[in-house]
Write a structure and sequence with these properties.
single chain; disordered N terminus; 18% strand; disordered C terminus; 3 domains; Beta-Lactamase; 5-stranded antiparallel sheet; alpha+beta; Heat Shock Protein 90; 425 residues
């Protein structure tokens, strides 16, 4: 009877299950409400973050647009041309000055096409580049950092060059008169001596031995005059045409052949040390011979005052780095005072009573026009001191020879102008 009382009827089971279900539903509803409220809160947070991000992005875009506008205004106002290239070498942007210098079209054009259309470089350009429209410009390039491409700055130097040309011309006319006057007494001395020897030669009572001696001295004075006049012409002209290709070893042998007789007469031996392989220079052979002739004659004059023997002049060629060759003249005449060695390149500086001071200045001018570097130093060989003058040239094998020559041509013209100013001062 007790067991029967503990059993539930079907109706009671249904009520119990329903109550459990309602409880479960209430719990789930409460959890769902809580989750929804949390989701709403998170959505609100995300919305706030999005609003802040949008606001920051809008501000950044505004700043970038403002900066872009400012950059465009600056580029437009710049007095120099600015061209921007992309990674493929095409023009993406160019300011007004660039379009004025190079002409349209520019944007969208390949820079190489613009070069072919607008530029007409010559050997005389130097640091400037000629354009087909007659202008002269200088270029400067810079990469865009981490971005591909380059920025090119074009500076129009046409008016500057024209003004400088006028100034140089007027200054040259003025200074040439002063330079000629400063050299007049140097020419007068050998000229007077030459006239004296000529008068002696006109004497019919002279024997053959004395005639020969006076003729030799007359020729020596005339050659001295010729050398001084040639130095003046080279120095005053400034511009030098580089039009020959010469083998270095042949040039050394030619110098020995040309000056060996004169050296023998003074008891001086000329020795040469050539290269083991053929190397050529692009040069003006006449002026290059004149430059080394000045160096050899300087050594001969220095050795004439040296007592005892041997008296030796060394002509030596050596290969240098970067396809360059050095040709040096060295003697054993005792060298030069270190306190004045830095002054020897200056025009009209001389330690000789009969010197013009143009010899090494002409050497400097010719060296610069050949794209060469030059040095002078005292040497010590065993117990003998001497002087070495070296000039280092770009060889024909050097791929940069044309650019080096063009740059140094302009430098040599500038050196002539500055030297003339120094004389006037």
């Amino acid at each position: 009877m007790v067991a029967q009382a503990s059993q539930q009827t079907p109706s009671e089971d249904f009520d119990s299950n329903l109550q459990d279900t309602l409880t479960l539903f209430q719990n789930l509803s409460q959890k769902l409400t809580t989750s929804y409220q949390e989701l709403e809160g998170r959505v609100a947070e995300l919305q706030d973050e999005l609003d802040e991000s949008d606001s920051a992005l809008t501000e950044e875009v505004s700043k970038k647009r403002s900066l872009e506008t400012r950059v465009d205004s600056i580029l437009s106002a710049m007095p120099v041309g600015v061209v921007i290239l992309d990674g493929a070498g095409a023009v993406t942007e160019a300011n007004g000055a660039a379009r004025d210098i190079l002409g349209d079209p520019l944007e969208g054009e390949r820079w190489l096409s613009v070069i072919h259309r607008c530029f007409s470089p010559t050997m005389a350009d130097g640091h400037e580049i000629s354009l087909k429209n007659g202008r002269f410009v200088s270029l400067a390039t810079q990469s865009l950092g981490n971005d591909p491409g380059q920025i090119i700055v074009i500076n129009d130097l046409t008016e500057t060059r024209a003004l400088q040309k006028k100034v140089n011309h007027n200054q040259k006319l003025s200074e040439m008169g002063k330079m000629t006057a400063s050299l007049a007494h140097q020419i007068r001395t050998p000229l007077s001596t030459a006239l004296l020897y000529a008068d002696h030669l006109a004497d019919k009572q002279l024997d053959e031995r004395r005639q020969q001696r006076y003729a030799t001295k007359l020729k020596s004075r005339l050659l001295q005059l010729e050398s001084q006049v040639n130095d003046m012409l080279i120095f005053s002209k400034g511009g030098i045409v580089i039009d020959k290709q010469v083998d270095v070893n042949w040039f050394l042998q030619e110098l020995v052949r040309r000056y060996s007789d004169l050296a023998d007469q003074q008891g001086v031996e000329i020795r040469s040390c050539t290269l083991s392989q053929p190397i050529s220079l692009k040069c003006n052979i006449d002026l290059l011979t004149s430059a080394y002739g000045n160096l050899i004659e300087n050594s001969l004059q220095a050795l004439a005052n040296k007592p005892g023997s041997p008296k030796i002049i060394y002509l030596q060629a050596n290969l240098s780095a970067f396809d360059r060759v050095t040709i040096s003249v060295t003697d054993n005449a005792g060298g030069i005072d270190e306190s004045i060695i830095s002054n020897v390149w200056e025009p009209f500086f001389t330690t000789k009573s009969t010197g013009t001071g143009l010899g090494l200045a002409v050497v400097t001018l010719i060296a610069k026009s050949h794209g060469a570097d030059y040095t002078i130093r005292n040497t010590q060989n065993q117990n003998t001191q001497g002087l070495e003058v070296s000039i280092t040239f770009p060889t024909v094998n050097n791929k940069n020879t044309e650019n080096v020559l063009a740059i140094h041509q302009i430098e040599s013209l500038d050196y002539t102008r500055k030297s003339a100013s120094a004389v006037a001062g």
